[in-house]
Write a structure and sequence with these properties.
With 172 residues, the protein is an all-alpha fold. It has two domains: 67 residues, Peroxidase, domain 1; 91 residues, Orthogonal Bundle (Peroxidase, domain 1), CATH 1.10.520. It has nine helices and no strands. Helix 5 runs antiparallel to helix 6. It is globular. The termini are far apart.
Length: 172
């Protein structure tokens, strides 16, 4: 799956129209926008699992919507990026949105994930890890959701502890 994001980056270097088409594909169900086929199908042409195929389309659209020129920061998992967003913004609704994302059914997932990725526009996202998580979204043991939750709360705790220590060190 790692090679998929590299594939998209390579296509983007040749023609930036790729991003526009893939962004537009987010207005449709994953895999239901024919103009996106030339950019995703060559990579998934041997994939017989419809869910995996759809998640490649979703990840491609999200990657295109989130792409920023010259972004060099180390990509973060969705959980870590949400924790960083909450710490930076002070928004109390981030956690609620994140939990709603984790509780998404297969049908709700594309819409809710688009909302969260749009919220994280200033935070670099690891789209390879995102795609891997999406492929296993329907796992009975909810490994993706549990992993994202651990990333969120571990990093949220780190940010909270840093803020408390900083406040305690300031003179009264």
């Amino acid at each position: 799956m790692r090679r998929f994001i590299e594939w998209l980056e390579g296509l983007n270097q040749k023609d930036t129209k790729v991003r526009a088409v893939l962004r537009r594909s987010l207005a449709f169900d994953p895999g239901a926008f024919p103009p996106a086929y030339p950019y995703v199908e060559p990579f998934v042409r041997n994939e017989s699992d419809e869910w995996k195929r759809e998640m490649h389309y979703l990840a491609a659209g999200l990657w295109a919507a989130h792409w920023r020129e010259g972004r060099r920061a180390v990509p973060m998992t969705i959980g870590k990026a949400c924790a960083a967003y909450q710490a930076a913004s002070g928004s109390t609704s981030t956690e609620r949105r994140f939990i709603t994302l984790l509780d998404s059914s297969s049908d709700e997932l594309p819409h809710r994930l688009r909302q969260v990725v749009a919220l994280l526009k200033d935070h670099p996202i690891d789209f390879e890890a995102l795609l891997t998580g999406l492929v296993f979204w329907n796992d009975d043991r909810k490994r993706t959701q549990n992993g994202w939750a651990r990333d969120f709360y571990r990093n949220l705790q780190d940010e909270t502890e840093t803020e408390l220590i900083t406040r305690e060190e300031q003179p009264a």
